[in-house]
């Protein structure tokens, strides 16, 4: 019996015939083979394969999150957390992968660069899908509709379809809004306010917190108080990506994250910040690589190259509102003591 008759064969299973014959060097076609074009193609293909995996993870995360409720005792939230952690690990790898690309010198790139116009990583549909699925929508992007201007219409339509779906940021907002903390008045029945209620505070806890926050500020930080009011108290602010309720609950999770029930939600919020940090680290390293390899020349995709990429780096943070909440933390030792019922609900046996 032949080895090939014994069930699944490695190369067939992975369809290596397709993958390993997908490196067509333009420089070879032009009759002047450039050694480094193989590296250039393989690196981009490796990125695209990892983007494929990231999208697979994010798709499943969005589907789980789209359920009307995710009960605390269901495994779904942990699954979301676990898969997003995997995305984080892949992103760490993708940042490192720039090291390999950077072994190509500017002169080596010039051997084939002009043959690639107008193709560019800027046309990576999967990269834009990842951005959109996480929550980067058109109005928040640098340069209006520029980001899809270099795509074929069917590819642009794919991105716009994803933008029409609720993103991880929007679903996180809804999940935060569903947190029961401040909904149930009875839950807070035994709360003993520290100060007389502040004007416009939505809840005795927030009234106290506002005043504790005020006390924690340095003289040159007084401006933060206006921001606190805008973020947590003035219910008519529609500017942000997160709603008031979501912001308050996210801050509450950050403040009381030592309670068992809040461990996983806190780690989940931290993971979102990791996403932004890793995406921006990739962007930063990509810019430096671009600078090193093409200097101030325009990109093959026709953009201003480095300038476009820097603007995208500055603007394309997705979870920056969650990161910004750390502005409003106070020292742990000054936190209001939660009522026994609330403590019990959050998982500590409170006697
Ligand atoms: C020799 C190496 C590289 C150079 C010189 C380079 C250059 C550029 C430039 C100049 C742009 C701006 C758009 C344009 O006008 O083309 C760009 C965008 C982009 N490149 Fe690269 N790139 C390189 C490698 C890579 C690699 C390995 C990837 C991995 C997928 C990649 C992915 C992207 C993406 C996703 C964008 C769009 C970024 C955004 O919109 O924020 N690039 N690249």
Reading off the top of the CATH hierarchy, the class is best stated as Mainly Alpha
- Average residue pLDDT: 92
Helix content: 55-70%
Distance between the termini: 72 Å
* Beta-strand proportion: under 5%
SSE sequence, one letter per element: HHHHHHHHHHHHHHHHHH
Q: What's the tally of helices?
A: 18
Radius of gyration: 25 Å
Produce the secondary structure layout.
Elements: H1 10-13, H2 16-19, H3 26-29, H4 37-65, H5 76-96, H6 98-101, H7 106-110, H8 125-134, H9 146-149, H10 153-164, H11 168-178, H12 204-216, H13 223-233, H14 244-255, H15 260-294, H16 306-315, H17 320-324, H18 340-345
The structure holds protoporphyrin IX containing FE.
What do you see in this structure?
The mean pLDDT is 92. Helix 4 (37-65) runs parallel beside helix 8, helix 12 packs antiparallel against helix 13 (223-233) and helix 15 runs antiparallel to helix 16. This protein has a single domain, classed as Methane Monooxygenase Hydroxylase, Chain G, domain 1 (Up-down Bundle), CATH 1.20.58.480. The chain has helices at residues 10-13, 16-19, 26-29, 37-65, 76-96, 98-101, 106-110, 125-134, 146-149, 153-164, 168-178, 204-216, 223-233, 244-255, 260-294, 306-315, 320-324, 340-345. The N and C termini lie far apart (72 Å). The chain is an all-alpha fold and 351 residues long. The site of protoporphyrin IX containing FE (HEM) has 25 residues, from helix 4, helix 15 and helix 16.
